[in-house]
Structure formats: C-alpha cells, structure tokens
C-alpha cells in the first residue's frame, strides 16, 4: 500500500499525525534535521550539551560529535570506539557508547550495534542514555530475529518513544499480534494520547485486512474523536470503492462535524468514482455550509478534468457568496488552461464586482506566463475602475517582464490618475532594476 512504510511511520511517530495538514518543523541549527528524525535530533541536542566540558579527553569526543553531525558514520564509529577504549571511566562514556552503537547501526553492523547498546544498558542502567539504548535494541530486534526483546517495554509507563518503537517492531515481526496489542493500548486508560494515535497509525500501515476492520470500529467510536479521525485517515489510504462506501456509512450515521470533514478529506484521496459522486452530492446540497465547503475543497483535491467540470457547473448554479468563494478557490487549484479560462470568464462576466475581483485575484495567483496576457487583455477591455485596480494588483504579483511593462504603461499613460498612482505604488514595491529606473525617470 505504501512505497516506504517505515519512513512514513517514522514521520508520524516523531511529529504526530496532523490530519489534513502536515507541518514538520525542527530548528536545531547544528544538525541536519532534513535527513534525520526529530527523535534523533533531540538526542543529538543532549549529546552536544554533554560535550561542552573542557578536559582534554573531550577533544576526541568533539571530533566524533562533528563526524555524527556530518553523517560520517565510518569515522564516527572509529573515533567513538577509540574514546571508549582510552577513557573507560570518563563521565561521558555512556553517551559515547550510545553513539558508537548508533554509528554501527548506520553502517549496517547490526549485531555489534545491538551488543554495544546491550552493554550500555547493563553497565550503566541509570544513565540517561540507557533508555535510548533500549529503544535502539528494540528497533534492531526484528532485523536480528531477537523476538524476546520486543514486547517487554510495552508494560512500562515511563518511555513513550520506547513503546512506539516496540510496537512497530512487534507489527513488523507479527502483524496479527501487533494489531491485538495495539487495540489493547488504545483501550488502556494508562496509555498516552500520542501512543494511542501511533497505535492506530500502525494498524493502518501494517494491519492488513483485519486491521482495516479494526480501524472501522475505531472510526465509529464515540469516546475519542481524535482517534476516530486518525482511523478515518488510514481507512482513506486504502484504495477502492469498498473503503469509500464504509467511510460514507460512518459519515451518514455521525453527527460529529469534525469527523465528517475528515471523512470528506480522506475519500478525496481515493480515485474511486464513488468518492467523486458523493463529494459532488455534498458540495451541491450537503447540509451545513462548512460541510459543503469541505466537500468542494475535497473535490478540488480529487483531480482530473471531471472534477473541474463539476466545480464549474456548481459555480454556475450557486448563488450563495460563501460557497461561491470556496468554488472560486477550488477552481483556481487546478492550475490548468481550463481553470484559467473559467476564471477569466467569471472576471469578465456579469457577477458582482466582489466575485469578479476574487476571480481576478485567483487568476493572478497562477503566476504562469500564460496568465499575464490574459490580465492585460482584461485590463484593456474593462471600464470599471475597481476591477481595473484589482488587475493592477494581480499584475504586480507577477515576475513576468510583460506585467512590469504593462504597469509602467499604466503609470505613464492611463487616463485615470487613481490608476496611474496605483501602478506607481506597485512599481515601487518591485525590486526590479527596470522598475527603479522608471521611477527615477518619472522624477526628472
């Protein structure tokens, strides 16, 4: 179902699942977080703090730290190994042992990585790196066939990350058992909200057909709306009419508008014709304005000319301003020639000035070279000053030289002083040297 399940799961576990909008943000300036998990970055932050002392042994330690930062795993492994051998009583030897094991894992030397992590836990059970070493061992367990390591930490209450990795390992080695344990965690009053969400996500990734049925039961649950929405997301990742029909059954039976919105988003990810049919029905007359707007957005994400044609037809039939605004936005998202033509038609048409202005705004957001000639043509054929002002603004948002030169022409020649002033103002916001020279010439 997924090309890289482990990568997807790592993202979910380290950032949390944010349905409908995924936002990853890490701000550690010294670590390449674009290539590492948030958990690894947090460990590296502790690693940096641990290495700020000033004794001579730390010269070697800092060298190894820089190798980790640069992802030079081979040299990092050698340097940490030397540090552990030469300074076995150093206060940071436990950190060195963890990062030595981590480097070994990165090099693919999994058995030695597991041995080093095991030694750290055995020799320094109270170290703040001991739990990280246990987690590393759990992560390595299914790769090494070390089944007994997997399930023990699930009974502990003090390490959420370890439980997540342990559960992932269990799923990888035994999906049926993983699903059963995940369902127990979801019901447990002791489990954290994040662990429960992770358990739902892992059922979605690893659970197979049995997992799908479990997800539908969670989605129907009334006790935890957040878990229901998470389950809906994962059901939506399963392609085919069957998933859409099951989700829409939950939609029709639910009074939770948040859950309904998540269902609409989820089915928008499914190319099934049944999904498009239901989205059109709800967009046309689906109860609340909020649900209709969500259906319109979901329809825009469904893709294809068929969806655009439905949106266009819906716009022509709609009279409510709020729904028309949403339809304009949805039409603009297709970025196609048909979309530009529709927006231009609305901008030229007999709708209210506000609707026409919004169509021009979204036309200008296309930022393509094909858009500028359309805006220029619209400006030259327009009589209403308010509409022409909107076109001037849209031209100012383009980096196309044709747009810049049209603004210069308006500033120099337009019959309306107001429009000339608007063009001059927006030229002043441009960083283009040609615009700067034009403004200097105006002052002469």
Commentary on this structure:
This protein folds into four domains: 1-19 and 28-171, Tetratricopeptide repeat domain (Serine Threonine Protein Phosphatase 5, Tetratricopeptide repeat), CATH 1.25.40; 174-238; 239-331, Alpha Horseshoe (Leucine-rich Repeat Variant), CATH 1.25.10.10; 335-444, Alpha Horseshoe (Leucine-rich Repeat Variant). The radius of gyration is 29 Å and the shape is flat. Mean pLDDT is 81; it is low at 1-38 and 148-155. It is built from 25 helices and no strands. The protein is mostly helical. The longest helix has 15 residues, at 130-144. It is 73% helix and 0% strand. Helix 1 packs antiparallel against helix 10 (193-206) and helix 5 runs parallel beside helix 7.
Order of helices and strands: HHHHHHHHHHHHHHHHHHHHHHHHH
Corresponding CATH architecture of the largest domain: Alpha Horseshoe
Class from helix and strand fractions: mainly alpha
Q: Radius of gyration, rounded?
A: 29 Å
Number of helices: 25
Compact summary:
This protein has 25 helices and no strands. The chain has 444 residues and is an all-alpha fold.
Write the layout of secondary structure elements.
Elements: H1 5-15, H2 38-50, H3 57-69, H4 73-86, H5 93-106, H6 110-123, H7 130-144, H8 160-173, H9 175-187, H10 193-206, H11 208-220, H12 225-236, H13 241-253, H14 257-268, H15 273-285, H16 289-302, H17 304-317, H18 321-332, H19 337-348, H20 353-365, H21 371-381, H22 385-396, H23 401-413, H24 417-429, H25 433-442
Helix pairs in contact: 1-10, 3-4, 4-5, 5-6, 5-7, 6-7, 7-8, 8-9, 8-10, 9-10, 9-11, 10-11, 10-12, 11-12, 12-14, 13-14, 13-15, 14-16, 15-16, 15-17, 16-17, 16-18, 17-18, 18-20, 19-20, 19-21, 20-22, 21-22, 22-24, 23-24
